[in-house]
């Protein structure tokens, strides 16, 4: 299995026979209030087949209108119950606890606590278990995720501005302490406030230092846009 970061929270997950995409967003501008701080990987232009698109929520930086329009008749699009904008693209509503079988992937929909209806996803394939948190604050539900699943790789949203709209650094550490994943991939790293001095200086070395201070054995994997991480089944 292969994880490829195409920018911000856009993750392409490929197994031997299947390919799914999380939270597509390919606009280099951002919006009036938020700017994009790193260029999108253009790899998305060559994607012609997907088995599904999974959205964590309907905020602008998680759903690319042009891309969803292109794929709305080609593959199922899933979005959390109560999200309205994705319905334009024939999305199917899902909720916490739902199980999806998409090609090689067995997916469990999990809780996420954000400003609008949001979900996270646990994905199992080829002997590994991956957690895509979606935009979420730290929550006690993460402990119950850790009781049900042994997470090999956690992709967590750590926003770069204050007040954090996601778990931020502190929540990230609590989440890592709950889940104890073997690898941690920080996502949501491309968006900063346009008119604010409140953008923090989260960097790889700083996140790494904080994780080391917690005595966790989790390894941080910093992906630049376009980078791939090859997932081989991890033996305990
Ligand atoms: Zn977001």
Automatic annotation (TrEMBL):
<feature type="domain" description="Metallo-beta-lactamase">
    <location>
        <begin position="6"/>
        <end position="188"/>
    </location>
</feature>
<dbReference type="InterPro" id="IPR001279">
    <property type="entry name" value="Metallo-B-lactamas"/>
</dbReference>
<keyword id="KW-0378">Hydrolase</keyword>
<dbReference type="InterPro" id="IPR050114">
    <property type="entry name" value="UPF0173_UPF0282_UlaG_hydrolase"/>
</dbReference>
<dbReference type="Pfam" id="PF12706">
    <property type="entry name" value="Lactamase_B_2"/>
</dbReference>
<dbReference type="InterPro" id="IPR036866">
    <property type="entry name" value="RibonucZ/Hydroxyglut_hydro"/>
</dbReference>
<protein>
    <recommendedName>
        <fullName>Metallo-beta-lactamase domain-containing protein</fullName>
    </recommendedName>
</protein>
């Amino acid at each position: 299995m292969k994880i490829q970061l195409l920018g911000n929270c856009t993750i392409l997950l490929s197994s031997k026979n299947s390919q799914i995409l999380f939270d597509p967003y390919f606009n280099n501008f951002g919006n009036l209030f938020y700017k994009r701080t790193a260029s999108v990987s253009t790899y998305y232009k060559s994607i012609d087949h997907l088995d599904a698109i999974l959205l964590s929520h309907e905020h602008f930086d998680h759903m690319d209108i042009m891309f969803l329009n292109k794929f709305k008749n080609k593959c199922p699009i899933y979005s959390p119950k109560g999200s309205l904008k994705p319905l334009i693209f024939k999305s199917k509503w899902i909720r916490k606890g739902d199980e999806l079988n998409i090609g090689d992937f067995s997916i469990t929909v999990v809780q996420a606590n954000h400003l609008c209806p949001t979900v996270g996803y646990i994905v199992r394939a080829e002997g590994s278990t991956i957690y895509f948190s979606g935009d979420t604050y730290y929550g006690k539900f993460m402990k119950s995720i850790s009781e049900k699943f042994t997470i090999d790789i956690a992709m967590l949203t750590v926003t770069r501005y204050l007040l954090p709209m996601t778990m931020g650094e502190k929540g990230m550490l609590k989440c890592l302490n709950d889940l104890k994943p073997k690898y941690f991939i920080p996502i949501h790293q491309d968006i900063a406030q346009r008119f604010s001095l409140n953008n923090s200086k989260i960097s790889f070395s700083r996140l790494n230092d904080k994780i080391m201070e917690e005595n966790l054995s989790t390894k941080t994997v910093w992906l630049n846009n376009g980078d791939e991480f090859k997932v081989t089944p991890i033996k305990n």
